[in-house]
Structures are given as structure tokens and as C-alpha cells.
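Need residues for this backbone.
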């Protein structure tokens, strides 16, 4: 029996290996298994092989009635030919290139479409997809230049422009792209403040694209763009930033009100200088203010011009009181009533 301690040790090592895998690297998926099977056989080659076997077997059985040796030989030849065609016919999709090795040495790229290989001698090691691909990367609890922990998610758009280099220069280029993008993202976060990352995402993505493109070009891979999808900060810091923004808006509002009061006071000072040296203008202004106050009632009142001096409206205090109050009825203390005609 296997000791229990040995079983536990194996289980712990397996769990440790799984934890040490970088994010985004998962066990084989169905698509990966299908890609491995395509390197050996495909649906078209299997169909051709079955047709050859069926036709050869039928012809061989028919010939055994006339010439048994010829019939048996035909069946054997049909069987071998079917096996050869099954492993010799390969198909690459329109967006793919097949990397073919002959006795372990690089022979060349094949495809797209139908192509032939020599079984046992040649082997298709990989189908390289040359379409634009996307890779999700994230940096959790990375510190910005102003020591703020943030979680950043980004998307990298890249494509393989030279399938030969991508296969011969790097072992697993998709994993290399993911790890390089994650490292570059963390480095870029450390070079920028939090405010820059929130307001200048496009600039940060452009810098990441340049860093990754310089690294991946020797691999035959180009990084087209990097988009910063989300920048998350701690909830406590988000609340503090909200209060700071609100206080900043209140400060700006008070500054605007103070500036408006200063401008209004300046205009009033200029108006006072004009009225001080021109009593006629003061008299006309008082009459205009009296008219504006009376016309709100929707009635017509004829007031003699001497009423302005009688009520003291020609003075600055009278104008201020008349302009700042709602007039229900004009009254002046210690002065006789104003004669009027309606």
C-alpha cells in the first residue's frame, strides 16, 4: 500500500503547481484538443480514406472470384493507400498557417487550404492563427506613483505577422504576450499618478502599446493597441475623493459669487460718480424707478415732477430704498401726501 503521507505530499505538490500557474493559463480546452487532433487527421482525410477502403474492398472481393491473389493484393493496396491518405492530407483554414517540420528541421509554412505531407517523415507542429487576437490582463493592488493601490483591467489587441518567427523564436507566444502585458501594465501604473490614470487612459494605453510592440516585434508579433478597460480604487478612497470634489465645487461657486459682487459694486460706484455731478440724470432716474414700481399694479398714475423732491427720491438713500423694496403703496414719513390724479 502507498503510505498516506506520500499521497498527501503528491496532492500538495500538485496543488502548489496549480497555484503557481499565472492568471489566464488554464488546462486544455476543447478547442486546444481539436487543434491537436487536426495535426494528425482531419475530417476530409478520414472521408477520403474510408472511400478508398470501401472501393478497394469491394473491388478486391469481386476480383477474388476470378483471381484470388489479385483480389487480396488489391485489398491490401487499398488499405495501405487509405492509411497514407488519412495522414498525408492536411487542411489549413484561410486565416491559418501550418508549420511543417521534416525530421525535426523546419521545412516551411503551408496553407491556407489543402496541402500534402509525407507521413512519419513530415509533421505539422502547429497551426498559427494570423487574425487579430485579444488578451485580457489585470493588475491587482498595484501602487501608483503617489502610492495609491488600484486594480486595473486592460485588453491587448495583437496579431502574428510572421508565423515562422513566432514559432521558432518563442516557445508559447500567447503565454509570453500575456505575461509581458501584465508586467508592462504594472510598470506603467507605477510611473503615473492616480489622477493621470483616471483622466488619461488613452495616453497610458498608447505607452503600453509601444512598450509591448518593441518587445514582441522580434517574435513576429505586433501589438496593435492596448485599451484600459477599468481602473478601480478602494471604496474609502473613492468616498474621500467624492468629498474633495464637492468641496472644490463649493469653493469655485463662492469665488464666482464674490467676483460677481465685486463687479456689481464697481458698476454701482461708476454710476454714483455719474449721478453725483448730474442732478438732472438723478431726477430722471428717480422718475423712472417710480414708474417701474407703479406700473406693476396695472393702473396709470399721474405724479407731478415735484413729487421726487418732496419724497426725497432724488437722494441716493431714497433710490436705494425704492429699488430694494416691493412697493405696495408709496409712503414717506414726516412728509405730506402726494397729490395725484387717476
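Answer:
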Amino acid at each position: 500500500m502507498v503510505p498516506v503521507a506520500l499521497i498527501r505530499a503528491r496532492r500538495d505538490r500538485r496543488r502548489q503547481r496549480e497555484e503557481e500557474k499565472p492568471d489566464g493559463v488554464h488546462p486544455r480546452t476543447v478547442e486546444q484538443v481539436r487543434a491537436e487532433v487536426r495535426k494528425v487527421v482531419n475530417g476530409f482525410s478520414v472521408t477520403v480514406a474510408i472511400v478508398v477502403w470501401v472501393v478497394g474492398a469491394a473491388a478486391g472481393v469481386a476480383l477474388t472470384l476470378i483471381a484470388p491473389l489479385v483480389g487480396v493484393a488489391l485489398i491490401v493496396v487499398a488499405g495501405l493507400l487509405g492509411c497514407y491518405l488519412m495522414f498525408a492530407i492536411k487542411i489549413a483554414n484561410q486565416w491559418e498557417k501550418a508549420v511543417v517540420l521534416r525530421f525535426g528541421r523546419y521545412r516551411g509554412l503551408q496553407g491556407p487550404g489543402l496541402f500534402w505531407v509525407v507521413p512519419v517523415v513530415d509533421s505539422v507542429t502547429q497551426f498559427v492563427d494570423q487574425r487579430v487576437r485579444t488578451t485580457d490582463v489585470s493588475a491587482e493592488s498595484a501602487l501608483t506613483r503617489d502610492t495609491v493601490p488600484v486594480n486595473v483591467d486592460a485588453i491587448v489587441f495583437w496579431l502574428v505577422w510572421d508565423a515562422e518567427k513566432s514559432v521558432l523564436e518563442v516557445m508559447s507566444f500567447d503565454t509570453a504576450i500575456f505575461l509581458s502585458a501584465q508586467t508592462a501594465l504594472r510598470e506603467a501604473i507605477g510611473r503615473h499618478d492616480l489622477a493621470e490614470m483616471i483622466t488619461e487612459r488613452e495616453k497610458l494605453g498608447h505607452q503600453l502599446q509601444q512598450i509591448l510592440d518593441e518587445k514582441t516585434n522580434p517574435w513576429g508579433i505586433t501589438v496593435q493597441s492596448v485599451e484600459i478597460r477599468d481602473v478601480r480604487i478602494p471604496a474609502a478612497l473613492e468616498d474621500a475623493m467624492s468629498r474633495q470634489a464637492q468641496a472644490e465645487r463649493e469653493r469655485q461657486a463662492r469665488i464666482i459669487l464674490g467676483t460677481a459682487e465685486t463687479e456689481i459694486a464697481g458698476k454701482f460706484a461708476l454710476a454714483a460718480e455719474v449721478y453725483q455731478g448730474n442732478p438732472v440724470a438723478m431726477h430722471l432716474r428717480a422718475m423712472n424707478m417710480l414708474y417701474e414700481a407703479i406700473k406693476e399694479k396695472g393702473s396709470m398714475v399721474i405724479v407731478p415732477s415735484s413729487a421726487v423732491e418732496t419724497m426725497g427720491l432724488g437722494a441716493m438713500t431714497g433710490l436705494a430704498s425704492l429699488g430694494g423694496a416691493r412697493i405696495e403703496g408709496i409712503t414717506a414719513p414726516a412728509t405730506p401726501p402726494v397729490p395725484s390724479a387717476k
